[in-house]
Design goal:
Order of helices and strands: HHHHHHEEEEEE
Largest sheet: 4 strands, antiparallel
Strand order of the largest sheet: 1-4-5-6
Number of strands: 6
Distance between the termini: 56 Å
Strand content: 5-15%
Radius of gyration: 22 Å
Shape: elongated
Number of helices: 6
Structural class: alpha+beta
Length: 204
């Protein structure tokens, strides 16, 4: 009964704003390894499994051999496509280069099935479920603390927000590649790429 209450508390803390540190503390200090796997399995299933309609299978940490082909394919990409550092303009250029190399790589015979990889891919597509038109909305939202120049720090960079002092409270919503500054009413004051994307930044 105690384990069930702790597990329920972990789920509640995880979905509360600014409670992830407390969630990690509760998990690390009160649950054994089997219960931790149960919590993580629930998180994966709740956050992405239902959205993309796939079955979640949790593996043991630091045991890459349990993942089988996934680890092998990571090594294949690394040793064949990154034997030399790629010359790229930005992350989109790297993505396009890898896409072209993978399309070209599909025109060879599979080492085991002795069939063209492209033909195997065409067969497999018939068994796959179509991805949603919009990806799962993964983001983080937090309140912003500004300095006297209407700047706040994001990823180690100072971001200037025009008219920030006109509002009592502002929030920052961050995605993996972008961010936006919003008011309590949802008005977007600033939207731009994350600093580590190395794109031209918006100058107010």
């Amino acid at each position: 009964m105690k384990g069930a209450r702790v597990w329920q508390r972990c789920i509640t803390l995880f979905f509360q704003e600014k409670s992830h540190k407390r969630w990690c503390y509760v998990v690390s200090t009160t649950l054994d390894i089997s219960q931790i796997y149960k919590v993580l399995h629930f998180m994966c299933k709740r956050c992405t499994g239902l959205f993309y309609v796939f079955k979640v299978q949790v593996y043991n940490p630091l045991n890459g051999n349990e993942k089988g082909h996934v680890e092998g394919k990571v090594g294949y990409i690394r040793y064949n496509f990154f034997s030399l550092p790629p010359v790229i303009e930005d992350f989109e250029d790297l993505t396009n280069q890898l896409e072209q190399q993978l399309i070209k790589d599909c025109q060879r015979v599979h080492y085991k099935k002795e069939v063209m990889i492209d033909e195997l891919w065409q067969r497999e597509q018939k068994q796959l479920i179509k991805l949603p038109e919009k990806p799962y909305p993964v983001f983080k939202q937090f309140l912003i603390m500004f300095n006297k120049y209407n700047e706040f720090k994001l990823n180690g960079h100072l971001i200037h927000v025009p008219r920030a002092r006109n509002y009592v409270q502002l929030s920052c919503v961050t995605y993996w590649d972008s961010y936006k500054v919003i008011t309590n009413d949802g008005e977007i004051l600033l939207s731009d790429a994350r600093p580590y994307m190395r794109k031209r930044r918006f100058i107010p």
